[in-house]
Amino acid sequence: MPLTERPLETAGSEELLARARRGDLAAFGELMTGHESRVFSVALRFTGRRADAEELTQDVFVQLHGALARITDEEHLRRWLLRTVAHRCLNRLRDDSRRPRLVPIESLPADAEPWAAERDADPLLGARLRRLLLELAPDARAVVVLRFQEDLDPAEIATVLAMSVNTVKSHLRRSLEWLRAQCTGDEHGS
Amino acid sequence: MDLEQQLRAALAPCRPATSLRPAVLARISTAPAARVARRAPNRIILVGTMLAVAAVLTLLVSRGMYKPKSMMPAASVVPMTPAPAPAAPVVEAPPVSAPVAPAATTAEAEPKQVETVIKPFTVRVTTPQNLSKDPATAAAFKTFHEALFDALRGLPGLSLIDAGPAAGQTGNSSYYDISINEFTVLPAENHMRIEMRGSTAVQPIYPVSMHGGLAPTCAGSPECGGPAGSAAAAVMILAGNFFPAPLSRLKEYKSRFLNTSLSLEERSRALSSLGSLLADGIRDPQYSQSGAKRATQDPAVVRGAMDLAATAADQAMRARVWSAMRGVRDVNLVQPLIAALDRDPDSKVRVAALSTLAADFPDDPGVRAALETAARDSSPEIRVLAQRGLVGEAAWNRQVVASLKDASLPAAERTEALLYTMRYVTPKPALGAFLSDDAAIRAFAELYPKAVTSSQADANLRQTLLNSLGSIDHPAITDLQLRNLGSAESSTRRQAAAQLARHADESRVRAALEKVSNEDADAAVREAASKALKAAAAPVAR
Predict the structure, then answer these.
(1) B99: exposed, middle or buried (C-beta count within 10 Å: 0-12, 13-18, 19+)?
(2) What letter would DSSP give residue B107?
């Protein structure tokens, strides 16, 4: 579904946007309410660490406050937020790859459980998929998160991430193949 | 569900903490300063750094504390050879008495230098042979290995032995062993994976896994990218957990924390970093903490921490301060911690204060009174933590079982200690450890439906509990599983069907499984029930 066809999430968001542009902090807070979970979720799936995701989300909204004058409407806002959080996450991952972290092997992103997971989803496979996602290369991870969390199509992902549609499709295909192989291998191995 | 559907479910939205919005609004309200900083960040950082360096140097020179590098304490190191450990010569480092510089830019700095006595210790590194035929992997491994040794040499008091690829060889029981178990490089993806384990003659101590980029493209921090940066990062982790930290790092963090010209955020992060390091001594090979002194065990740092907690408007910062003070055991902290537990409006701050009080001052009468009050708190987490602090680690499991069986308590309170323990305590205990008698099992089976829907039970914990039911052989649990066959969640029904296989010779179980295998709306559940029935019908080999 193209971004422009998405329904508005919050009633009166244009008015909120206008009030926030005039410096109304309460309106900005309300504006955040409609978008914080999306921004946070993208950051969480990218980084796998709740603390990092919250820090990135904060940074995105602080940046948004400085950019409100340039935001024309709700749809622009949604796209701006996705693009900004995706690029901040990519930068963070690239930083991380240059500055490796050590974690206990047992420590997993346990606090990354979704609150709106489908009922029939296998929770163990879900947790495994979230862990595997963190092993994908940053660009591929970005593509998978935007495709399956935000339900963007390849053309939209290409716009958000500033890459070609073919590259997006290639990342998607390879990532899904790899994820499938990992999950299948696991089942056989256990 | 196919993989794409599973991915959509796994990536469903998550809620951020409720504190996120207030934190953003607080940051925005101070945005003008930030905007000024953004205009010329490089210049400000450069000038700030120059001023700070000048101030530090001036102070060090004026106090006669600066020493050339060659005079700094250095660990002795055995050259890297593949010789087996017992044959390798060890040069023990003498006890090191090292100065820790007081902070440069604060009036809180200690007037006298603090002597830190470091007990010598020996580390033996076992590395696999560099067998890779891939030149990139072989080169990366060599760099990592050499850098690991270089970084270990920076730790005061350390004598180093290279055991080569002599894994499994029995060494001196007083050694620390570090083994590199895996070193994988994917050059095409600029990625590497390293797994290391630390151990003593007694037990494993610290498994770490690390992902990192291959390219050493960043500059400045010793924990930068590439194999060498990864090795430095690994050693800093070890320094935080087992070995004394490099003195330069201790000075840097302490100085930053006590520098009142820095932002509260920067100072609190420096405090957390300081809290992650050991200042002197080492944990002994039996994995006790005796002899190890945390870098935060410093009167100036404690005073600074109390000031920071009293002035910080940000609750995350206050919580960070009280967490960083854990292990310091300075009696001056008791009253501020009790006040934070009693009166802080934020639950995370209260939890941090309570955890520190319970860990460090369990025998203090004032603390015990505060814990007794907290044990009646309205928050389940506060209640459980306080109870755990009061009864102590050794008696905690008995307390969990006693609460479970105590029918005089409200149902939610009967399970909250169990849920807390199953969720947070590491190593994670088995459910069976708490369900050791008939009364406990019956109580659990009765309380299970409410327990799994309580706010304490996240998806992981629900799954753990569900899995654990399969290992408990008791009629009350069989009844519970039969009830689970009617659950609204198909995964619960599927698991119940699978786990009931071993009771499928009971007529009531067989009847229930047959009904599910014919009528359940979910094909996977029907299949699980059919499999359970078939398994029960199959002859058992004796």
Answers:
(1) middle
(2) T
Q: Do A118 and B5 touch (CB under 8 A)?
A: yes
pLDDT over 70 for what percent of chain B?
Answer: 69
Contact residues on chain A for B9, CB-CB shorter than 8 A: 114, 117-118, 120-121, 126
Nearest CA in chain A to B195: A105
**Residue B398 at interface with chain A, using a CB cutoff of 8 Å:** no
Q: Is A25 on the interface with B (CB under 8 A)?
A: yes
Q: Do A102 and B233 make contact, defined as CB atoms within 8 angstroms?
A: yes
Whether residues A99 and B6 touch (CB distance < 8 A) is answered with no
Taking 70 as the threshold, does the pLDDT of residue A123 lie above it? no
Mutation target to probe the B interface, by most B beta carbons within 10 A, among A99, A151, A171 is A99
Among B440, B441, B436, residue whose Cα is nearest residue B405: B440
Q: Give the model's confidence band at B107: pLDDT under 50 very low, under 70 low, under 90 confident, else very high.
A: very low
Closest CA to B120 of B88, B90, B91, B159: B159
ipTM of model? 0.77
Q: pTM for this structure?
A: 0.48
Out of B13, B211, B213, closest to residue A37 by CB? B13
**Distance from the B167 Cα atom to the nearest Cα atom in chain A, whole angstroms:** 20
Q: What is the DSSP string of B54-77?
A: HHHHHHHHHTT----GGGS----B
Please return the burial class of B158, using the count of CB atoms within 10 Å of its CB with bins 0-12, 13-18 and 19+.
buried
* B227 at interface of A, judged by CB pairs closer than 8 A: no
Query: Cα–Cα distance between B105 and A60 in angstroms, integer?
Result: 33
Instruction: Find the CB nearest A97 among B8, B207, B212.
Output: B212
Instruction: List the single range of A32-46, A65-79, A91-105, B404-418 with lowest mean pLDDT.
Output: A91-105
Tell me how far apart the alpha carbons of residues B125 and B176 are, in angstroms, rounded to a whole number: 8
Higher pLDDT, B156 or B307: B307
Q: Is A54 on the interface with B (CB under 8 A)?
A: yes
Contacts 24+ apart (CB under 8 A), B218-226: B218/A95, B218/A98, B218/A99, B221/A99, B222/B151, B223/A99, B223/A100, B224/A98, B224/A99, B225/A97, B225/A98, B225/A99, B225/A100, B226/A98, B226/B140, B226/B143
Average pLDDT estimate for B38-58: 38
Convert the pLDDT of each residue in B108-138 to its tens digit.
333 333 344 566 778 888 877 766 677 878 8
Q: Give residues with Cβ within 8 angstroms of B528, minimum separation 6.
A: B494, B495, B497, B498
Q: What is the DSSP letter of B99?
A: E
Q: Please report which helix (H) or strand (E) contains residue B258, including its range.
A: helix B247-258
Is B459 within 8 Å of chain A by CB? yes
